[in-house]
Inverse folding.
């Protein structure tokens, strides 16, 4: 009998600046804009969307929407993060 699968959230393991840097570096190596945007969204969740929204001046809802699977973040929001 096999063990049940569990959902893994990489944001849970991005708890140091070094882990975040390594995660983003690997995403950038793919040169896939959609994957890089997804990785930035994971990093944003790891940092806390509310605090990130406050720091960047963007709304929390805008961040969630932009960096969701269907999102299409602007360069402005990406640079703000």
């Amino acid at each position: 009998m096999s063990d049940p699968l569990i959902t893994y959230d990489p944001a849970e393991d991005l708890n140091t600046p070094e882990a975040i840097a390594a995660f983003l570096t690997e995403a950038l190596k793919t040169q896939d804009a959609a994957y890089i945007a997804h990785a930035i969204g994971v990093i944003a969740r790891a940092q806390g969307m509310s605090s990130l929204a406050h720091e960047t001046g963007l709304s929390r809802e805008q961040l969630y929407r932009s960096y969701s699977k269907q999102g299409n973040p602007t360069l402005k929001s990406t640079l703000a993060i």
